[in-house]
Structures are given as structure tokens and as C-alpha cells.
Amino acid sequence: MATIDPNSSQAAIFEKLGISQKAGAQKAKSDTLGQSDFLKLMTTQLQNQDPFAPMDNGDFIAQMAQFSTVTGIQEINNSIGKLVEEFDQARIATASNLLGHSVLVPGSVGTPDENGELHGVLDLPESTISTQLRYLNAETGEALHFEELGPKPAGLIGFAWTEIAQELLDERARIKIEATIDTGAGPEQLSPSIYSKVISASVGSGDTKQVLLNVEGFGEFDVSSAVNFR
Description:
Immunoglobulin-like, five-stranded antiparallel sheet
């Protein structure tokens, strides 16, 4: 019985495709195989198969399914890439919209806003029988204002100093806030959070590309860590 020489069969395939062995080697270096290339190669393979041992239908279907799967994955990757680009653009737009707003940042030092007010929040771990706030000049330590908030329930409690002296506003004075609470076991210090103005915003580099806010008196701040805006 006659046998099929694999080398001559491969050469015949290349010949029918209209390419030489050298050209075929060059094409093999290509990163991708297009759908038309695959179908042309598959057709030529069928035309040059051993008539005494034709390709099994299951093998043929498996090859088609494999190529379809690879093609589908490539299309999905392309779609995801486009979505990532659109998402990055949306993040940049979001960052620019935050300019001029105030973000709640952890810390005890802040500056009055454009309305001449200083706003912040206390996160009380328990209900208190006494809640006190002292406002001091952050540079000199001079006492500026005192406020007794009285008993407060556990949770977030907002506070504000709205009658700041014009002299302090003209100086753009940095004001330190000391919070003292008493839950029944004696006075203890509690660190507040203060609303501070967003000066600039940017999108960081790397895989995460997080939105970074440059906050007055605080520095760079990851927007994902922000609790609240005003």
C-alpha cells in the first residue's frame, strides 16, 4: 500500500498556499494567525490529507473550536482594554471635578474655608457625658476658642467654628483642634477629622492608577480613602 511522505505533503500544502518554505518560516514568526489564514490553511490541509487515513470529524471540530476560543479571547482582551481606557478617562474627569471642594481628612490641623469657617467630624467610639473642643493657633499654641458640645451618642458627630476672627482669616492661620471626651472613665483625647480644600487632583501611575488629591495642609490623599466631601 502506498504511503504519504509527510515532508512532501507539507511541501504540497505550502505550494497550494502560494508560499515557499522560507516564506512559511518567516510567517511563522508572526504573533497572530488571522481567521482567513486559518481557514485557508484548514482547507489546504483537507485537500492534502491521506485519503486512506482522513482527518477524524472530531479532530476537525476540535481544531475549529480551539481557534474560535482563541479568537474570542483576543476579542475579549481588546474589549477590556478599551473599557480600561474609558475608565481611566472617567477617573481623570472625576478628579478634575473635585477641585475647589473640601474632603474630610484625618488630622487635627486645618485652615478656614472660603466662607471663613472650619468644619470637622468626631468619631465617638462610645456615648459621652462630656465632649469638648479647643481651637488653638497651630504655630504659636495660643488658645483661640473653646466649645462644650455636651453629651453625645456614639458615632460620627459634626462640629464647626463659624465665627473666626477676621485677623485669623487674613493671616490664613492654621488652626489646631484638640478634642477631649469623657465616656465615664475620665477625660481622654480623641483625634478629629477636618474638612480641607482640594488644591489639585491627578491620576497616579502603576497598575492601580488611583486618583490622588492634593489637599491643603495635608498633602496627597488617595480618593478611595475619603469618607466625605463638601
